[in-house]
Amino acid sequence: MFKVPYSLDLSELEGRRFICQDPCKLCCLCQPECLGDEVDYFKKNHPDRLVMKKEPHRHYALALKKGQGSCSFLEQGKCQVYAHRPHFCRQFPFHIHVGSRVQVELDLSCRGVWLDQGDEAISEGILIVQQNDAAIRKALREATPVYREFNHNCSDAGLDVDVPKARSQINARLDELIDLRLIASLLEGSVEEDELSISDLKAKPLLEGNTMKELTQSALEMVTGSLAADELFQAPVYCARDGSWNLFRIEGQSVERHLMDVEGDVRKVGEMPINEIKLRQPEGKDRLVLRDYLKILNNRDSFMGYAFYLMDEYDYEDPWPNVYAGVLSTSVLDLLWRSALIAAFFPGSKDGEWMREGIIFYDMDRLDAPTLGAFI
What we know:
The chain is of the alpha+beta class. It has a domain at 149-375. 44% of the residues lie in helices and 15% in strands. The chain is built from 12 helices and 14 strands. A 4-stranded mixed beta sheet has the order 1-8-7-14. A 4-stranded antiparallel beta sheet has the order 10-11-12-13. α8 crosses α11, α9 runs parallel beside α12 (353-368) and α11 (320-345) crosses α12 (353-368). The longest helix is centred in the C-terminal third of the chain and has 26 residues, at 320-345.
């Protein structure tokens, strides 16, 4: 039995397996920070492949092709330093979130976690926790006063932040939350109610034109923040089933699709008017895929930490249920709009694939969102 002297949650990994799938290489677009021993190795053996980065702190990282493409060690789909790849490359697609407890989360943008092949994710998660024990303990010491201050601020503002209650209420309504009628009520109530009651909320009887227009507008407000990137290489990446790296960017009233190759060269391959991308209700197996994903989000500490971050950002003005309902409903709308975007540019998905492809496009950005606590 694996034991650690801190609260550890591995539940997201239960029942999942992971394998590195060709020709994905999505992780090779993530510029990895190099730790002490790794810096020494690359300075000695590949000094021209190390670059100094100043954000979010000063650190060494591996160079990217042309400063913007894939890792410079990726050649013909293979890592040329696989045996010496940095710690963060070895850890992907697992993320350790440290907050009030330690939780291992799985990046569902990685196609290798959807195949039910390879190693058991929970075994890999345990190994990663063991390898990072010292860093986890240090992060916990740093996170404790942050959470203490957050709870103190909530208390001063008269806010009751009952996380288990919120999670329980959402879990009890997962079958309804995959319906846009309840999402519409959740979004509306988060803004208009003095203090929202998630368990008592009633779904809208119909999805009439104005409601769909409002939902679409809310979804666009969410995606515009990420897809309206000033620099193309800051735009979200979708790794398609054929292994291609697709960058999507909103430009004016259109969505542009760009392809990036392994050398870092980018070319525009298509565009579509925004108003042709239609928000739609999941059906069939897609409903089950969305339901399972909402259950994962609801249990993620980083997702909860994003709601905490927003509470702090807005000076603790809104009740906790309203904040969490707003975060959940807008996240669902963001995901559904991205799913519709992928379906528009890559038609022909089978039942259940439409929602899965949307999650593959969305989840890496979800894990990159601000949060209370830290990833290591």
